[in-house]
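Our consortium's second objective concerns turning raw sequence data into structural hypotheses that experimental partners can test. To show how far this objective has progressed, the report includes one record in full. It was chosen at random from the queue rather than selected for favorable results. The single chain below, 178 residues long, was entered without modification.
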Amino acid sequence: MCRALDSLPITCLERAKELKALFGSLLQKSDHSITGQSKKNDKLRFNVNEPLKWKESFDKLLSSQNGLCLFRAFLVSEFSEENLAFYLACEDYQATKPAKQATKAKKIYDEFIGSDAPREVNLDHVTKAITKENMEHPTQACFELAQAKIYNLMEKDCYPRFLKSSTYTEVSRKAKTG
């Protein structure tokens, strides 16, 4: 396993491996859904058509827990996982209570946008400046522009590469023939 995959949460790595194995076994199954057990003993549903839906739109990929795990693993292998991490942090931030927004906003800014950010995302100067200005009085929408730019970057760049990746093509091929 490559070093970059070490930075993924273990549950996501386990899920990605489990998905690949389960979708791989679809060729031998007559039923079109397989139920797997996670470590927490909650049931996960794997539908044979799920990978095919991911190709329909980037939103469908992001709304699928299984798709999200495979996409994240792909991004780690491409050294661009910070984009998805930032996008998801912004989604989480939007649900944050106003009393905790300032603290959470600073954490997100310092991790992904600031000049010395350890997981800096690729944003243009204007977007960074607007976001920095928004940080003076954080609101629920302070990362909206930056999040939209990263979403568009992933949709136009990372998502098409994911759909052409060997992992996705193998899983979708097995889904089509399963």
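The partners drew two points from this record. The beta strands are 33-37, 43-47. The mean pLDDT is 82. Both points have been shared with the crystallography group to help prioritize constructs.
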